[in-house]
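#structure-requests
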Amino acid sequence: MKSNWKELKKEIEIEVQKVWVEKPIEIKKMQYGIIPTKAGSYGQYFSTLVFSLIYTLTLGEHTLFDLLKIADESDISLNVLVKFTSISLFKGFQSTEFLGYVGFEKTHIFAQKIEKVLDMLDTKEEYKELLGAYFSYINILHCWIHIIFPWNLGLFFLQKDEHQVKEIIKLLQY
């Protein structure tokens, strides 16, 4: 039974290799506005893109990265690390479940599988191997979302200079 975490790690690593070189189907669908759950209010999917960008970033670069850094602390035991992970990923608002809702079901499935094998880990090195693979997967998804994000929309939100602000104030007085 102890090998389950290794099988899961291998499954995640295989997915990492696939999405590293080819745009994942979830990203392709999102790029065309095909959201199986219909996430996004009023029939639009822009908010789904925004949430996908934000939640992959925070899950990868903040939650998983921090957990992996904590694993390097000599005074933190594997038991405490597993508890931190359970609280961070599987209690309260679950970002992986939300990512599943907005179109990244595999992200949530992997998280559910991680939750099931956490107690099977014997060392912090095993923990780092498993969570490190998931960290890579999430970060690659984030990169893909970053690439397809419609950054050109920023042109509709140009900053105002002093002259424009004065003109706006003047217009408000009439």
